[in-house]
Amino acid sequence: MKKIALMCDSSADITEEEAKALDIHVLRMPITIDGKEYIDSKTISDNDIIEALRAEKQVKTAQPVIGDMVNMWIDLLKDYDEVFYLPLSNKLSGTCQTAIGLSKKFEGRVHVVDSELVCYPVVSVLKMARELLEEGYSCAQVKKKIEDDGELYAVIIPENLTALKNGGRISPAAAALAGLLKIQPLLSVEHGAIDLVDKVRTLKKAYREGIERVTKDIHPEDYIWMIIDADNRAMSDELKPILEEACGQPVEQRTFKAVILTHTGPGTIGFGRIRKLK
Predict the structure, then answer these.
(1) Which domains are seen in the chain, by residue range?
(2) Is the model's pTM score more than 0.85?
(3) Residue with the larger pLDDT of the pair 257 and 176
């Protein structure tokens, strides 16, 4: 059996300790705060980013350095036969298409999934991919299965619009108006893209609406379920049993880490489901 290296980037919200335990190789992404560059989990921590966001500093992310990506592949191929790389959604970053282009120089030994995934669901799908590879599927077959059948749907509810405003995703005027009117946005993650799907008046109503949307018109047993929070575990603890009752399935609790946290801001709650690969 071929020896396959599983790989993602740090937008997958996986710690170095978890990555080591799961034998997943992580390409850490750059983060800048007020123009100074750091590397996620290496030269900056999640707590540093939370403090910077709460202080309304300018926090941005960037694609992984191309040289770091290629060097990781070269190093992995010294010990592995092939590399299976599942990057951040192609709708949210140019990393995916860049990696697909670069992989062609590795003569079929690097497989890059044309991904529509983001956050910890990347890790969930990589764990399912490993099971398929161990059953005898090839990297090419698993890549096609993820691209054809993989599905992530999530509803993300920011506690406030500060991070979205500071990141340039909404205008200061729109953020101010939303704050004045106490409007709470609901953002969906579907087909790899993030869109505004609804606006309600209170966080309590937003959470209720989010759970209704993520559990509607599907067979819950066909999915893996999770609730993800950004420095808001108390609310996650409160909402987890409500989501479990709504879907009738176990719900995993996770934390938004540096890359995604930068865009959503502290306090965010996300409800998500990932289709099981069969």
Answers:
(1) 4-29+64-148 (3.40.50.10170), 152-275 (3.30.1180.10)
(2) yes
(3) 257
